[in-house]
Amino acid sequence: MKKILVAAFMVLLGASWANAAGTAAGTQIQNSLTLDYEVGGINQTDINADDGNGFLVDNKNDVLVTTADVASVKVTPGSTAQVLTFTVKNEGNKVQDFILSVSDAGAAFSLTDNFNATSQSIFVESGTTPGYQSGEDTETYIDELAADGEKTVYVVASIPASQVNGDASIITLTAQVATGGTASSQGSATVNDTGADAEDTEQIVWADSAGETDAVEDGKHSDASAYEVQSASLTVTKGSCVIWDPANEGTNPKRIPGAVVRYTIQVANAAGAQDATSVVATDVLPGTVTYGVGGSGLTQIARVVTEVCSCTSPGTANTGNVSESTGTVTATYESPISASETQCAYFDVTIN
Amino acid sequence: MKKGFLSILLIFAFSSIVYADVSIKSQSLQEKIINKQTKWVKATKVIPGTKIRYINTMSNNGTVMAQNLVITNAIPKHMLYVDKSAKCDGVCSITYSVDGKAFDVPAKLFVTENGKKRVAKALEYKAIRWIVQTLDANQSSSVQFDATLE
Question: CATH homologous superfamily for A234-351?
Fold first, then answer.
């Protein structure tokens, strides 16, 4: 009876396991087989064979950086500690450290970069509290990241006060594979082993893809995100009209002493701008006029209306208000003044 | 006395030519571009995703034909068989196994997934078996397959 041995399965030498990132570096892979045969119809002794020690799995260096920001991070001029968020994944097959750096480069969210955020810093999420916490997330490199593991990394920066609505600062985070194995100590950047193949030696093989600003198989990967300045874009326009004089009264009145003049202060927020809140306009009246309608018998108008100014026929007041004190008129506009919204403050004075 | 001596010689001569000396060796190779040409060289720089070609070469250095040669090769752990890559020199039958015990053609290999039986995928094969009918004296013959490091 023919005897067929089930082939011997691979001999495991040393640590070995597989994961999505692949078989662990240092794993010995050996092939084993069995030959069964006959001579003259008589079964012969089986022959077992292998490929010697086979080969040793090398150290695949592969890193993937992706921004977690699904859109540009909206910032206001003068703000500090603004956060861009990235994920760094070890797609290699061994524990590695990762050296992190930022650059004012790259492209993101179809924005045009026209300024550099200042005081740029990099911090690694500690895992204690999700999201950037200045007191907790203090590590500036990734320490001992296992194969398939990933870390959240924050770029924290300030926005110059001089920036205006629509300005953008694009920032690229780069992660460089570094030697792991020693906790709490940043390893040196790895070096691709381009020399002769060495049997039974665990060699370093850069196998990363090209990133935002780095090349394929360079031991790095990068991705970009962006700060986008969003602020109110207000336009203030002052106007006036005469609505009554003692001679003509309400019919074609002229600006003569005793006439009532209505001032308008229009505030418009541009399309696409951020809401403007707590908008207040102050107007110091000249000594030649007095706040109010004097002896005209007219009803005093002092209101804020959500509309384009209509000097002779103001609309209905919103929640804003107009007040006067010792010759200074203060117009407080309804909050917010949204993008594309216009409000008008009205008040009457009498020519002395 | 002469006759007896001749008989011994004949017996010795006859017995000395009827034998088979079969051996087999295995090689693991990987592709490498040398002078812009792709060549298979000894596998030494291997990372996840690298394709390895295993070549098992049988040699019969004896004086008679070997028959019914059955080569059973477990696919090494961490290696994934590349579909349709198993071959042999000349004529042979090739079967596969998903448990290392029962061998059959691909259409008759099944695995159970989520309680449902389905035809096994190539990367789920655990072993390959080649059956080569004959290997003449002083001849060599190879069988091979490719597998990718997971």
Answer: Mu homology domain, subdomain B (2.60.40.1170)
